[in-house]
Specification:
GO terms for molecular function: tRNA threonylcarbamoyladenosine dehydratase; ubiquitin-like modifier activating enzyme activity. By secondary structure, this protein is α/β, with parallel strands linked by helices. It contains 8 helices and 9 strands. The strands form 2 sheets. It has a 7-stranded mixed β-sheet with strand order 3-2-1-4-5-7-6, sandwiched between helices. Strand 2, helix 4 and strand 3 form a beta-alpha-beta unit. The two termini are 22 Å apart.
Length: 241
Amino acid sequence: MEDFSWLSRTELLIGRESLVKLSKAHVLVIGLGGVGSFVAEFVCRNGVGTMTIVDGDTVDPTNRNRQLPALSTNHGVSKADIMAERLRAINPELQLHVIKTFINPEAVAEILSAHHYDYIVDAIDSVTPKITFLKEAYQRNMRIVSSMGAGGRMDPTQLKVVDISKTYNCNFAQQVRKNLKKEGIYKGIKAVFSTEEQLKESLILTDGSNYKKSAYGTMSYLPATFGAVCASVVIRDLIAD
């Protein structure tokens, strides 16, 4: 019989039956940066029994202001490996699948076909890989929550959960909607976004690596809040089944 004693405070809130549901669920988290790393942590700490985490990147010094795995002592180390060690330390009984790869069409098809997922979290921060992933997941009728842009903002109280078609004040979401429409997808994807106007002055151009041509300035707590909201969508939907 599974030991739920470490989840006693969670059980007080949602009950034993919901804990059992979560222990039988499999959640996929794509992207382990500022948003996805916190998603993975919060999902794990709610007792989800099986997780798959995906990220091909390593820790960079500029990650340290907002990403859970990033420390001054682990620059160049795989984010997936760092998070895997952390998640297993939180819950040694966790069934964890670790995939260290960047997102491309071949990888997406392989990842989505590897297991049955009860919920998927898209925390990809580059438009082209994000569209590739969302299109494939949508066509497979998978349950998914997608994070929009956390950069260029400072107010964590302005986050909302809506259908992708109802997002606004977010350049990243606008690009995602535009590209999804080219694929014939207009709605049907749950999105977490901020209604706050982005601070345009914080935008910088990048070298284009990992499909990113630009980036906004970020605060430590904004991506984490996005991660918390995404995780809450997953947990609340799973226990409502």
